[in-house]
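#struct-pred

JT: dropping the chains for the assembly here, can someone run the whole complex?
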Amino acid sequence: MNDQGKNTENKDCLPDSSNGPLLELANISKAFGGVQALNDITFDVPTGIILGVIGPNGAGKTTLFNVITGAYEADSGNVRFSGKEIRGKKVHKIVTQGIARTFQNVELFESMTVAENVMVGCHVRGRCGFLDAIIKTPRAKREEQWIMKRSSELLNFVGLSSQADQRSGDLPFGWQRLLEIARALASEPSVLLLDEPAAGLNATETRQLGSLIQKIRSNGVTVLLVEHDMSLTMTISDMIIVLDRGSLLAKGTPREIQSNEAVMAAYLGKGK
Amino acid sequence: MCDMLLSRINPIRFAFFFLVIALVGLLVDNAYYQQVLILIGINTLLAVGLNMLMGYAGQISLGHAAFYGIGAYTTAILTAKYQIYPWIALVIAILLAVAIAVVVGLPTLKLSGYYLGMGTLGFGMIFNIIFREWSSLTGGASGFVGIPSLSIGSLSFESGRNYFYLVWFSVWSVFLICSRIINSRAGRALRSIHDSENASMAVGVDTMTLKLQVFVLSAAFSALAGFLYAHYISFISPGSFDFLMSVRMVTMVVIGGMASIWGALLGASLLTLLPEWLHAFSEFEMVVYGLVLMLVMILMPQGLTRGILDIYERSREKYRK
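RK: done, full complex below.
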């Protein structure tokens, strides 16, 4: 997790804390048919924090991630990343700028090895195409070595080094989650979006995941965390936003959210 | 894991393959065997190109015979009608196939699954109709005759042995190109599309461009095969580039084993040899042909390569006990 890969094109997208928030969402709305999945969502994400995104099922959390990463285009509103508008950009362009994600239902390249999964993750930080590969240009060799080194560092970081040559589809579920995080980090993001990373993990694994996320943050990566495990979210988040039926219900520190009445009502159905 | 192991001994395998080609060329004197081996080589070129698209990138094409035909007809027309030097015709044939692949690939590769199958099927049929109906240029249904044989300076490829070397060293080069691509940044991205296009996009792979690139690459290999076929047989007709040929190409890939360049060799060999072996069954030939393919798919659903490797691993385990 050192900076040696930052020599590539992403210099201008590196977070610049002096220039306001890293990620800004303004008046984002998204509807599917008659269902308003997101309704006028506005919030900022400062550089270097862990932002918890919570809310009941169907609140629009995953839709929010899909809008930020470009998988869906918002019907209206703006998404700005490091001050630049990214709404409407293609998914792979947004990854190149420095936003990476994991999926709620782990999506690995199952027939490929654990190491290869992370190597594909490095894709946006490389440039060599078919011709480089066929001729084996010096730059292709250099890049290949760099990709190998980088992916073994990342596997080491999440603790999967000894599984490097296994087929990723054969890994136990908890490790698949870790591998997906390593793959996302391989693109050297400044923002990492984790969609329910603790789902399906046991208590020990969840604790380890918590400290991994904190380690990622201390390496300078801003983290957005959608998570149903409240104890995890409340312990590691610096800030929390609460979504309910597509609207932003509350934002604040974990302590503020825990004592917020509207949030209690949304979760427990009080006051109806 | 097995693949990782194999990729490390890649240079040795290619040296070995080179030696086998050289030896087989020296030892086989019989004109009939030489002809069968040349046809296997041409079919292998077709299969390995399509395998890059189907086996690695996971995109089906039911119209690849069109590129095979474009290669064959372009060189036939240029060399026989306009007396253009064949090796220049080869370059033009490949460039034409590449250009058509870009034009066809841009809209069709946005489709997936059955729809991509249908789209490419239609494209293949259109080209077969062009080969058949544009008689003034292609000779129409009765075919195109008088395609000259190949030579470089005083080295003539008219003899079976020389043509064998020409075809099989083309195969060798194409295999080397494919294996280098597969184990590179672009190749890994390609394989990732096969497993999950969603995740592939999410890690920043420009899936559309990559799919188009590999489609173009496989079209170029098919055109090369068409060129070699036309100058070998010296006569071509639309029947060699019809829908059934496209299906035969897909069958070679599936039978040989998807996502394996050596599988393309096995699949092409079996599908070229089988009709030759089955002559003894005379009118039941097609029945037995179908039966053999069904048995392979039932017993080795992953294709011949995987199937044979499995048998090898199982027998080794037994031997250890």
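JT: nice. Residues 108-188 of chain A form one domain. The two ends of chain A are 49 Å apart (CA to CA).
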